[in-house]
Design brief:
The protein is an alpha/beta fold. It has nine helices and ten strands. The strands form two sheets. The protein has an eight-stranded parallel barrel with strand order 2-3-4-5-6-7-8-9, surrounded by six helices. Strands 1-10 form a two-stranded antiparallel sheet. Strand 6, helix 5 and strand 7 form a beta-alpha-beta unit. The radius of gyration is 17 Å and the shape is globular. The termini are close together.
């Protein structure tokens, strides 16, 4: 029998219960006691989604743009304003951004892959994140910069490593911008998850998880999730842990495995 969850738990709607229409997925996740997460909000009926009454954790925080050049930064900021308005309809507190605009497919490749991240790109990213912090703090939301692995899923994305996102967010150090620390991506790209969690510390806005290899639910791969959960508790983390994975079989069973990995016996 599953024990008491150590953290609030959330589930991404685009990766589980894919046989159901979108609104039914939201209802199912909500009815099972999880918070809900969304990728591209522009193709959803937000009024119908809001009527379900689910608790939302995160949604995508921009439509177009990127962090690493001036034009991309301006575009990201303009579309982030639209995302803030969308988030208000659902009461969603966190909005996810990336170093580069992704193509929106399941593969999530960057529209403009970059082989090298230059000093100018770092400066542009810092300036754009500072403006995002202004926007978030003025509207009561937090923009969360997500790390992405460059080896399997997202080659060519600047600032993809967790070390990069920690550097940017930690240097800025504003409450309107925090980390979306994705431990699936970090395990592929960097490993050493417990020390990474300790290093990220108070900069974490949310944790996302999936096991490696395969991007399935906890317990299907190589990561010691109870040890990771204990490390999160050890740094005083009380935020959301979100499941961003496919199911290895039955989606309901996958969610119980996820809940068990982050629960006390």
């Amino acid at each position: 029998m599953t024990g008491t969850p150590m953290f609030p738990l959330a589930v991404t709607t685009e990766m589980l219960f894919l046989d159901l229409p979108y609104l039914d997925r939201v209802r199912r996740i909500h009815e099972l006691g999880f918070q809900v997460e969304m990728w591209d909000w522009t193709v959803k009926d937000l009024d119908a989604v809001a009527a379900i009454g689910a608790t939302w954790s995160t949604m995508t925080g921009y439509i177009h743009g990127d962090l690493y050049d001036e034009d991309g930064g301006r575009t990201l900021l303009e579309t982030a304003k639209l995302s803030v308005e969308a988030a208000a309809k659902l009461g969603c507190p966190r909005l996810v951004v990336h170093g580069a605009e992704l193509d929106g497919s399941r593969n999530g490749l960057p529209f403009r892959p970059q082989a090298v991240t230059t000093g100018r790109m770092w400066l542009n990213a810092y300036r754009t994140l500072d403006r995002l912090a202004d926007l978030g703090e003025a509207n009561g939301v937090v923009f969360c910069l997500e790390n992405l692995n460059l080896y399997v899923d997202h080659p060519g994305v600047p600032f993809g490593k967790a070390e990069d996102t920690i550097t940017l967010v930690g240097t800025l150090d504003r409450p309107g911008v925090r980390l979306m620390l994705d431990l699936y991506h970090a395990q592929i790209g960097e490993g050493n998850l417990i020390e990474l969690v300790r290093k990220a510390g108070r900069l974490i806005g949310e944790i996302q998880v999936a096991d490696v290899p395969g991007r399935m639910e906890p317990g299907t791969g190589e990561v010691n999730w109870p040890a990771v959960a204990a490390a999160l508790e050890g740094i005083g983390y009380t935020g959301v842990v979100g499941l961003e994975s496919f199911a290895s079989g039955d989606a309901g069973v996958a969610l119980e495995r996820f809940r068990a990995a982050f629960s006390r016996a």
